[in-house]
């Protein structure tokens, strides 16, 4: 892969990388399609990265659907699939990890200690191996994208990060490979995440700018769905990921909840409208 990447750079190809852990859904394919439009060569990596899973998490049962994934990628016109084995990425004696301080230990990082160290490490390795011009990530993993962007900036990594919108099912559920774990009942209950975010968006639309009021609204929506266990609802500055009290700058409304044993995340991105900074626009 590294030799192919070197050749592509020597030939001045614009290489797009879509890093994935497989179990590809329409959200991943939207990243691939965008890369296809913007790059002359598209590489998709498929690697279920062990270092980003906690000891009690779902590494062993994480869905692995390589044949179906390869077919989807071939149909989408991807030029190469990079699917290394864990021992290729972490050979015996491996000792170096990337830790993006401050951003990595709150929210998802607090619920999943060590998760972002694993993500940042593998993503830097994927960048080194595949040497992309652009790398495509979905906004559903908002904190992940923020941490990767910080890593790229801090370590002078020559890759441009492209952030793509969340893709949802017709009823609002954000696409995730982990949706495959949900029973029919949990699948219905999982709509509480997007319902809570929609309630927050509607309240913002009618003028509320107070973060606590929005949080309370969302907690009430969750209280009406006993099958879901709320992990957190937080409203944070989109740059620092620190909580805000008033919504004025770019912010995220972040939510994480358990449906049975399955943990799902979702978010609403808020930014001032480019044409009128006094107006906010919402990306659900
Ligand atoms: O978002 C994911 O699928 C993973 O965290 C990533 C970025 C491929 C790293 O393993």
Mind explaining what this structure looks like?
It is a single chain. With 284 residues, the chain is of the alpha/beta class. The protein has 2 domains: 2-164, 3-Layer(aba) Sandwich (Rossmann fold), CATH 3.40.50; 177-283, Pantoate-beta-alanine ligase, C-terminal domain (Pantoate--beta-alanine Ligase, Chain: A,domain 2, 2-Layer Sandwich), CATH 3.30.1300. Helices cover 36% and strands 21% of the residues. It contains 10 helices and 9 strands. The chain has helices at residues 2-10, 26-38, 66-75, 86-89, 108-111, 115-130, 142-154, 184-189, 191-205, 211-223, and strands spanning 15-20, 41-46, 80-82, 134-138, 160-164, 228-237, 251-259, 262-272, 280-283. The strands form 2 sheets. It has a 5-stranded parallel β-sheet, with helices on both faces. Helix 6 crosses helix 7 and helix 9 (191-205) packs antiparallel against helix 10 (211-223). The longest helix is centred in the middle third of the chain and has 16 residues, at 115-130. It is globular and about 55 Å long. The mean pLDDT is 97.
């Amino acid at each position: 892969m590294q030799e192919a990447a070197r050749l592509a750079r020597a030939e001045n190809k614009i290489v797009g990388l879509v890093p994935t852990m497989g179990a590809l859904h329409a959200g991943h394919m939207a990243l691939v399609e965008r890369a296809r439009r913007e790059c002359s060569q598209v590489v998709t990596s498929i690697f279920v990265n062990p270092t980003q899973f906690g000891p009690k998490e779902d590494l062993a049962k994480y869905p692995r659907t390589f044949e179906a994934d390869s077919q989807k990628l071939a149909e989408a016109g991807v030029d190469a699939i990079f699917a290394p084995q864990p021992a290729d990425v972490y050979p015996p004696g491996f000792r170096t990890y990337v830790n993006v301080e401050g951003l990595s230990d709150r929210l998802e990082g607090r619920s999943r200690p060590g998760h972002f160290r694993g993500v940042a490490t593998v993503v830097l390795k994927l960048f080194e191996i595949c040497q992309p011009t652009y790398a495509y990530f979905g906004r559903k993993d908002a904190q992940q994208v923020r941490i990767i962007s910080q890593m790229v900036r801090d370590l002078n990594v020559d890759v441009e990060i492209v952030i793509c919108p969340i893709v949802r099912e017709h009823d609002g559920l954000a696409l995730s490979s982990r949706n495959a774990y949900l029973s029919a009942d949990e699948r219905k209950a999982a709509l509480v995440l997007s319902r809570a975010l929609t309630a927050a968006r509607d309240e913002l639309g009618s003028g509320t700018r107070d973060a606590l009021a929005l949080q309370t609204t969302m907690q009430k929506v969750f209280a009406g769905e006993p099958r879901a266990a709320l992990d957190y609802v937080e409203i944070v500055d989109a740059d620092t990921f620190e909580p805000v009290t008033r919504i004025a700058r770019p912010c995220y409304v972040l939510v994480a909840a358990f449906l049975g044993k399955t943990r799902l995340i979702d978010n609403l991105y808020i930014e001032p409208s480019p044409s009128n900074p006094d107006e906010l626009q919402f990306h659900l």
